[in-house]
Amino acid sequence: MSRLTAPSGPGRVEPRWVRAVRGASRPRGGSRATNPAPRRPGGWTPWLYVAPALLVLGGLLVYPVYQLGLISFMEYTQAQVSGGEPTRFRGLANYTELFADDQFRQVLLATVGFAAACVLCTLAVGCALAVLLTRVRAVPRLALLLAALGAWATPTITGSTVWLFLFDPDFGPVDRLLGIGDFSWTYGRYSAFLLVLLEVVWCSFPFVMVTVYAGIRAVPAEILEAAALDGASSWRIWRSVLAPALRPILVIVTVQSVIWDFKVFTQIYVMTGGGGIAGQNLVLNVYAYQKAFASSQYGLGSAIGVVTLLILLAITLGYLRLLRRQGEEL
Amino acid sequence: MSVVRGRAVRRPWRLAAEATALLVAAVVAFPLYWMLLGALKPAGEIESTEPRPWTASPSLDSFRRVFEQQEFGRYFVNSLVVAVSVVIASALIAFLAATAVTRFRFRFRTTLLVMFLVAQMVPVEALTIPLFFLMRDLGQLNTLGSLILPHIAFSLPFAIWMLRGFVKAVPESLEEAAYLDGASRARFLWRILLPLVLPGLVATSVFSFISAWNDFLFAKSFIISDTSQSTLPMALLVFYKPDEPDWGGVMAASTVMTVPVLVFFVLVQRRLVSGLGGAVKD
């Protein structure tokens, strides 16, 4: 309390350097004792401020998660929804049924593989273009930024339909350009996944590019120049200078991408017509949707949802541990 | 000497980099160009097996078809109502919560922050089933409320997480000065802090807007019988019949759906970049 008002009298403006020193010491201030920032113990006020958020999240996020878990242990089909039959507790039966199901295991594998491929491609493209942005003058930079912004802003569903049109075997320009006649991209399993992957990368690399670009610009130019003068190659500069400095940003961007790409629904649903021929392009989310809303097996669908949730939770916890190891203050 | 040589070596590289950047920009922008082109091409040209990257006789027929055949205007308004409600509600709630966790020290503060982070990771799509039953019990099925409520909840954690940086950036001394001048807590919150954090709020709202505007799964699952409550994604799919897609209609509808987001993005893009930087650096 004493340090709070000591340097300057009440109402007087502090000298700029005092504020600068305080501001600089705050983020890494460490323990409470050395941190003079007047983060007041506000009694009930902070709880009043978070109350609306907690209320909304509790009702529309926590409670549904609890319900999801509950339904996944139940026999819950059309008969139970309409009230014709009572819900029955099945224990782990839904889960054993799932893991005995060949298709589910295949879908699980496809989801992991597809998400991994999407994340790798998105990160590679995003980081490469972020570096490229730092190498060019204003006009090409603006052009690339604007184009990326356009791709970013495109709603998922219109992105899906436009890419379908681009790759349409009859009227699309891509097949003409590649000279492959009327090749149907959505017919084969892997070509359909590739098509969706291209669309996903197209609409998600801008986030990576813009974020990483903002991060690179925060790296002091002298360091980069020194490295360049010492004859370091672009790759070497990236690996030894930029990547370490950008690590916190890269971690965030990677985890966000993993989460987004793991949850892909609209693209698969629209581009492969609900999961592809005989379900060859199903991913977990679409599979859960089909199980629940197309064949009314809400219990099974919920069990799939729980599996997705657990996988993402594991990734989140790993992410939190990474953050803590880096000593980030929350 | 060495400087001059360095420049001579670097110059072609920079030109190559700039050429690459322009080429990539063209490739990235091409789908959007093709969408607009497809919307403007007359019917005969779009169903041509020799697609040309230009059109000699642009027409608004596809747009006319979109706005006439379906209740497209209504869906557009519905989508707008959902997105704007979500943006305003989540911005206000997130602002309060972000203020609480950055400007106060209280028990469970860190726990709350971790909770918000974990909440951000919850896959929306996995919750469709319980939310369906919840909305049914609340009597919200087939209403826009069934789309607004979940999206407020889902955009909150990220909004709080991102706003934190902006609220933190407002100097503490300002807060003290306000109290010394006799401002109440509420006055400080709404009259001083809110205007200062507004740029951050705008950047944050882009994400809420997009998630609500993009919503396809909830619209598909919760608006089941009352099509007057449908939103744009569902309307777009009307034109996309699996065997005989009306590509002109699809492209025109896609354009109508993309333009508002593009406008919004261009308006806030400066704040977006700095906002992301702030959220990431803190």
Question: How is this structure best described in words?
Answer:
By secondary structure, chain A is mostly helical. Chain A is built from 16 helices and two strands. The radius of gyration of chain A is 26 Å and the shape is globular. With 282 residues, chain B is mainly α. Chain B has two domains: 2-46; 61-281, Orthogonal Bundle (MetI-like fold). Chain B has twelve helices and no strands. Chain B is globular and about 70 Å long. Classes of the chains: A mainly alpha (330), B mainly alpha (282). The interface between A and B is large, with 103 and 108 residues.
- Low-confidence segments of chain B: 1-9
Whole-number mean pLDDT of chain B: 84
Pair with the biggest interface: A-B, 103 and 108 residues
Structural domain tally of chain B: 2
Number of E-type strands of chain B: 0
Profile the largest sheet of chain B: none
Q: Write out the CATH superfamily name of the largest domain in chain B.
A: MetI-like
C-alpha geometry of chain A = globular
The CATH architecture of the domain at 109-325 in chain A can be named as Orthogonal Bundle
CATH architectural designation of the largest domain in chain B: Orthogonal Bundle
Question: CATH topology of the domain at 109-325 in chain A, what is it called?
Answer: MetI-like fold
Radius of gyration of chain A, in Å, reads 26 Å
Secondary-structure topology with pairs:
The complex is a heterodimer of chains A (330) and B (282).
Chain A: H1 2-5, H2 16-25, H3 45-72, E1 74-75, H4 78-81, E2 88-89, H5 93-100, H6 102-135, H7 138-153, H8 156-166, H9 173-178, H10 189-217, H11 221-229, H12 234-245, H13 247-262, H14 266-271, H15 284-294, H16 298-325
Chain B: H1 2-40, H2 43-46, H3 61-69, H4 72-103, H5 109-121, H6 128-137, H7 145-169, H8 172-180, H9 185-214, H10 217-222, H11 232-239, H12 247-281
Provide key terms for this protein.
heterodimer; A: 330 residues; mainly alpha; MetI-like fold; two-stranded antiparallel ribbon; 16 helices; disordered N terminus; B: 282 residues; 2 domains; 12 helices; 78% helix
